[in-house]
Design brief:
It contains 6 helices and 28 strands. By secondary structure, it is mainly beta. Among the domains are: about 15-100, Hepatocyte Growth Factor, CATH 3.50.4.10; about 110-185, Plasminogen Kringle 4. The longest helix has 19 residues, at about 1-20. GO terms for molecular function: serine-type endopeptidase activity; signaling receptor binding.
Length: about 700
Amino acid sequence: MEVHKAVLLLCLFRFTDVLEAYIKTDGAWIVKLPRSQYTVKTVEDCAVKCNIETSFTCRYKSFLYIEKDQDCVTLPANSKTDQILRRMSAALYEKKEYLLECVNGIGTDYRGTKSKTKSGKTCQRWEEKFPHVPNITPKTHPKADLESNFCRNPEGDKGGPWCYTTDQEKRWDPSIRWESCSIPRCSKQCSSYRGTIAVTVSGKTCQEWSSQSPHKHSNTPENYPCKGLDKNYCRNPDNERSPWCHTTDPETRWEYCSVPSCGDQPIPGEPVIPEGEECYEGDGSSYRGAMSETISGKKCQFWTSMEPHQHSKTPQNFPAADLRRNLCRNPDGDQAPWCYTTDPTVRWEYCNIERCDSKPGTQEPPTNPEPAASPSTSQETDCKVGNGATYRGPTSTTIMGVTCQAWSSMTPHPHLSFNPETHPDKGLESNQCRNPDNDVNGPWCYTTDPNKKWDYCQIPDCDGLKCGQPAVKPKRCFGRIVGGCISKAHSWPWQISLRTRGKIHFCGGTLINAHWVLTAAHCLERSESPSAYKILLGIHTERATESSKQERDVSKIIKGPAGTDIALLKLDRPALLNDKVLPACLPDKDYIVPSDTECYVTGWGETEGTGGEGFLKETGFPVIENKVCNRPSFLNGLVKEHQMCAGNIEGGTDSCEGDSGGPLVCFSQNTFVLQGVTSWGLGCAKAMKPGVYTRVSKFINWIEQSMKEN
């Protein structure tokens, strides 16, 4: 018995050890050839397969694992070298040593991507012979990973990693034709630190690791039993560059700690912007919400900017007024929050925010109220208010154009309820669409089609349903809020859930009219058949238990031009448009979204343990122009003309919180416009690696033509 226990423990330690060398990213996928695919029993078995891979050089030692299918895919790539796509059922495991940009000891095991010497010279590729003929090459040192022009230490030089330089003037000088690289040391104390410091670099007190307040997280003692997560002491459970902690400040999720022996500390990031206050008290001097638009829909000018309007209301002159970014504020005690506008002809305006005490229905009734409309007048109005419970209009056909059965008739569909006798005050005198049961989706009727008992009717809203203008105002959760915010229910009514026939959510999409949904082409890799997919609309939770849910099959799939990540899905029957299901607006053809435009992604994507699992989440960030995004320090030329990128330069949020295929909508003139389709990114919410989106404006002709022909 004891022998069996020992063997079991030995296996447990072996499997635990094999995964310790990897960093896991949920919901990530790499499309890379060559690759090897195996069926395994556990993720540990997959790690072993990767470690002993022989069919190709598993240079970056990474693998994908799909637990549901027990599929294991080994790859010669990682998040530094290839595009990361979103796939909810998969997990990417990357060997830590290939992700580190620091050295242990003299750096013989360094596998990072630094390619400049300490004096700033660019490294020569190891396989090339100009300007220097190398003594050390990939052939002479096959196990040293002499790839590209990355700094390496193949022979254990005491000076650490080095490279041949591209300095042609020194090509004949043996002592200068190569140079050491300046790569920081990986301090072991950073990961093994067990001290009692419990304060961050900015002086904030650390939250206890076992606590989920004020910040929910997965870095608990139970999940990391060997990482010393005691009390609220600074620790490094996930191999960050130095110890850190979640803070007790609700507005700052985490910060690094000042542990001197771990080397230089990064500068603390910009403070987190609150989720957004819905109203302001008094004159709004204390308002700290995220609104950045005026009452007429104009975008606010940044407080630090002097274009187009010069002013003295700067963060330096008003340090207590919280003049961050271009957020509405009241630094000078005006009547309400305001801002300078980006319109050169309008210097400033009050912002589009209501007073907290301006509740509906508090006004005094007029002395001489208007006479109520007569029944005959209201009956002539062919529009509905709310869910249409009071609708008495003339429409008598369903959303599919089928004539309604008379409510008093029992042919072709007999019914014991919902007739003039059982509901005498519901307007069931003829065959007009009505809502006798207060259905959240609006008026309906029994149909004259023997195969379809009942269906909804498409009745326009009396207020006028307009694309991109939701009935419920979104929070507009903007800024470095890790994991985003849980959205208000139905505040992004164009968001759809793309599901398998078994109704498992795996991608997002955007309703662009009652018949069509726009999504990413890579979401449709599993099958070319429309019958493989279902679409859910009008939901807020991933469980989709809402009474407002609409379920549709897909009748047609149209993928975009070759090399693009966009696709159209035609619904088998039109969506019923209401206050919970509404299309987003399409942009003008070839429109280029200006840099710093306020945009948002939504979805039921990975939450990384930040809470809100199962609820629709949102996060906002600015657009980054392509020429900036394509700089070597960002995405290094990977962003094409038909794509766009957006995100926070510092990292912290991106479309990891959304879903592949989901919307990137940008706010302009009181309307949300669909500017992007969530496509890919390098890593997940990493600094200097914004998310990449298909630029919808480049496909307007294709969208319109495809819908017209189909």
